[in-house]
Amino acid sequence: MQHLTVLGTGVLGSQIIFQAAYSGKDVVAYDLNDEILAKLPERWEYLKPQYLRDLPDATPEKLDAAVARIRPSSDLADALSAADIVIEAVPERLDIKQSTWERVGQLAPEQTIFCTNSSTLLPSDIAPFTGRPERFLALHFANEVWLHNTGEVMGHPGTDPAVFEQVAEFAAEIGMVPIRIHKEQPGYVLNSLLVPFLNAGAKLVVRGVATPEDIDNTWKIATGAPAGPFEIFDVVGMMTPYNLGMSGDDPEMREFAEYIKREYIDKGWLGKGSGRGFYDYSGK
Predict the structure, then answer these.
(1) pTM, to two decimals
(2) pLDDT tens digit string along 240-254?
């Protein structure tokens, strides 16, 4: 599968786009309008030095070649016209994902394989909206995909086993370590472990127990871990915990969502990718 279309160019969508192009795939980057897409060159310039820092085989020439393999498009029919595989990375709301896949199913070529990068939702809740559920499954990436390179592959009961294996092979082709999930599980393996950890940190803040900095330091000093929950939130970006908190049933996580909107999102502090979140990454 050489031709990839990624739906959504946010924090993780843009990483998937760049990593696939870096691995030699031809990638169409789709988003809702050209104003959003116009910001992508800035995003590539943000990612390039991280590849040079973290990957021994990265060179400026290889990174420039990756950018040359990326084509932006705000026309969904155009973006899907040659797609062998589609990876969706739109906001983490079931209604948005369902409506997106309904449109994709009407426009994509017959042979196209459909993947969601949803962090928490089950493929079986989305599959019927695609019109071809046997070709639909999840391929889930961790943030900083070039470095934390797991590719969790999770089908639903109606996924064709041959399609499942094709996606696992594709994940390996773009530098991921395929993790085959044998049964539908909200949060896969990674987020089944990570989300309770992040939520615990969030609740300590909304309860007024400790500051984000002290919570992070406690975890890092006591366990030797490289990052605490709020450093991880900064990598993930503020919009994902905000959307999850506002759409969930936990009143404390809703309070946390309102807190990060008021104190961070409304100020344009969206996480590490924007230069500032709980911590300041601007170097100023």
Answers:
(1) 0.82
(2) 899 989 988 999 999
